[in-house]
Design goal:
Elements lengths: L7 H5 L18 H10 L5 H18 L3 H13 L3 H14 L4 H13 L3 H15 L7 H22 L8 H13 L3 H120 L3 H83 L6 H11 L1 H4 L4 H12 L1
Helix pairs in contact: 2-3, 2-4, 2-14, 3-4, 4-5, 4-14, 5-6, 6-7, 7-8, 7-9, 8-10, 10-11, 10-12
């Protein structure tokens, strides 16, 4: 076996878990570390990866880069999703032991997982060549070999279905035909059955995805139609309300105009009466001024007159003028009182007018605010309507999940991680 792996040590230096080579005759010395590796590293967390790497290095140090160790490490790396690293270990293993069936199967699976479909078909042919064209006389051995054949059928079903857009049809057909030519009739039946099962499952998943997408599209169209209908109804409601507000505004302005006209009508006679009273008050003031001037003149004459007879005449005139002045003053007081009454009536009218104007202004302001708010709602509705009309139905999460499932290799040909782990652990005991 040493001869088979003469070049493996140099290759190991480029790998993730490169350690100094040990003699492969001591390969069993790695068993405890390999077993512990599969226990502590069996997960996808950073802690599991670190623990697995530590035990893998310990195993390679103890037992060298034996096929058993390299395959066990590759299985662990597949579990952790480190497919490129796993393929490096598988490639190293197959350089020394090209007929290692589990490794050959792993290389087929990893190549497909890494979307190297040309490499997948080459690796599939290598696995088919290793299986051979003769059926085993041992039933258990043949059953195990049939499982590999069925796996190859799943791979070609995957290449012809989910991955068909990435694989040239002529190349796939030629590779499949070459592989099929090396299979016995019963093995070919197993191959085709597995291949067709994958294709059928892919069709079913694709149909289910399309059904979910169509249902979502229909629901989205219904929702969009409902949204547009609701927007139209709301827009019509606002249009009706805007018309109602305009009519209310026109009515308020008309009523205020009529009310102001009525105030003016009531105020006109008061203005006329007040003007008359002001003219009357002016005339009385002028008469009082004239009388007061005469009284002042007579008083001056009286003060300077020494003749008793003349003084008596002056006194009589003063008394007469005082009586006349008192009468004018009483008339002026009455006129002023009437004018004050008229002014009071006009003030009441003015206060009523200001109140009416303020009430109408307040109502018109509320109408204007509501109109402005409705205009904003119209703009928002227009934006929503444009987005709704431009929007395309979104793919539902269920369809996205089905699409991912329908495209995944693991859906049709999952790597038998738990089975391989159990088998390796059994071999390590």
């Amino acid at each position: 076996m040493k001869g088979l792996f003469a070049g493996a040590c140099a290759a190991g230096a480029a790998l993730l878990l490169a350690v100094p080579c040990a003699a492969w005759g001591d390969a069993k010395a790695a068993n405890p570390a390999l077993a512990k590796m599969l226990e502590v590293g069996w997960g996808t967390s950073s802690q599991a990866r670190a623990a697995g790497d530590e035990q893998a290095r310990a195993a390679l140090t103890a037992g060298g880069r034996s096929p058993q160790a390299l395959y066990a490490i590759a299985v662990l790396l597949i579990k952790q999703g480190r497919y490129a690293d796993a393929q490096k270990h598988i490639d190293e293993l197959l350089k020394g032991e090209s007929s290692h069936l589990p490794a050959l199967r792993a290389r087929v699976w990893l190549s497909a997982m890494l979307k190297n479909y040309g490499g997948t078909m080459v690796a599939a042919q290598d696995l088919a060549d290793a299986i051979g064209d003769k059926e085993s006389t041992n039933a258990d051995d043949e059953t195990a070999l049939r499982e590999h054949v069925s796996f190859l059928g799943q791979i070609y079903g995957f290449l012809g279905g989910p991955a068909s857009a990435s694989v040239r049809l002529s190349e796939r057909k030629a590779a499949e035909r070459k592989l099929a030519e090396g299979l016995s009739e019963s093995r070919l039946a197993a191959f085709e059955e597995a291949r067709d099962a994958v294709l059928q499952k892919h069709i079913e998943l694709t149909d289910a995805k399309d059904a979910h997408t169509d249902a979502a599209k229909e629901a989205s169209e219904d929702a969009r139609a409902k949204t547009l209908e609701e927007l139209a109804a709301q827009r019509q409601e606002r249009a009706d309300r805007r018309k109602e507000l305009q009519e209310r505004s026109d009515k308020l302005k008309g009523e205020l105009k009529d009310e102001l006209a009525e105030f003016a009508r009531q105020d006109r006679p008061l203005v006329t009466e007040l003007a008359q009273l002001e003219r009357r008050a002016g005339a009385l003031n002028r008469e009082l001024f004239r009388i007061q001037a005469e009284i002042n003149a007579l008083q001056n004459l009286l003060d300077s007159e020494r003749d008793a007879g003349r003084r008596q005449l002056y006194v009589a005139d003063l008394e007469r003028l005082s009586v006349i002045g008192a009468r004018y003053d009483a008339d002026l007081t009455a006129v002023n009182r009437l004018a004050a009454g008229v002014q009071s009536q006009r003030a009441v009218l003015a206060a009523r007018q200001r109140k009416s104007e303020a009430d109408v202004a307040s109502q018109l302001d509320r109408i204007n605010q509501e109109t402005v708010e409705m205009a904003k709602r119209d703009k928002r509705a227009d934006a929503i309507e444009r987005r709704t009309e431009r929007s395309s139905p979104s793919v539902p999460a269920s369809a996205v999940s089905l699409r991912a499932t329908a495209a995944a290799l693991a859906t049709y040909a999952p790597f038998p991680l738990e089975d391989e782990k159990a088998r390796i652990l059994a071999e390590l005991k």
